[in-house]
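re: ur question from yesterday

yeah so i grabbed the chain u mentioned. its 236 aa long if i counted rite. heres the sequnce exactly as i have it in my notes:
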Amino acid sequence: MIKDFNGKELGRGLIFVVCYLFVLPLAISYFAALVGWDLSNDRNYIIANLILYVISLAFLVFYYQKSLKEEGQKYLKNFKTFFFTALKAWGKALLFMFVTNLLIISLLGNIAANESANRNLIGMFPLFSILAMVFLGPFIEELLFRKNFRNVFSSKQAYCLLSGFLFGFAHVVASLDFTTLDAFIGCLPQLLFIIPYGGMGYFFAQAYYDTDSIFTSTTTHMLHNALAVLVSMFGV
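ran it thru and got these structure tokens back, copy pasting raw so excuse formatting
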């Protein structure tokens, strides 16, 4: 198993994730404070987030440009097969997330903080939410959590578990309150939501592994987020 582990790939992948989740947002916030740019203003908040997405996407596409072109061609050539794979992965992810969310919500009495934040965002900025949650976010996250860690393990199971866990952890840790020790302890039960988010990431990783095209898992991710946005906006 040690022979199948690539620590260098893991380290690089983790650096990319940390930069996207923490370093770049902090840098943008620091720059905004430096120039007196009020991020509590709705317009400025949207622009700041778009900057985050554009910088992240531009860097990742540039970094993976060669393999992205190859995987894009492969996806188009095998579109029907790969799209069906994406649909199957989505069905599994949707079922797993629904069941585990139901159990955790019944235990805690509230939804995931990340889900609550997304619903608020959709309510306040519907057009931005569609762009961010259905298109930009899924592609960036598939590059970060799927493609980034593809070569850490040669084992499919180990890769999918790693990718799923990191995906789930990232969706929960950003919602934790680190302001005080009591606040942090109070929101620790939110860590249970790593299970549904992680399971979803696991099935997305399977879709990528089985087709060797990041556009397959991106399709799965986009379908899932599009449904979530529709449900939130229209209650369908």
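noticed a couple things. The chain has one domain: 7-234. also The chain has a mean pLDDT of 94.
anyway ttyl
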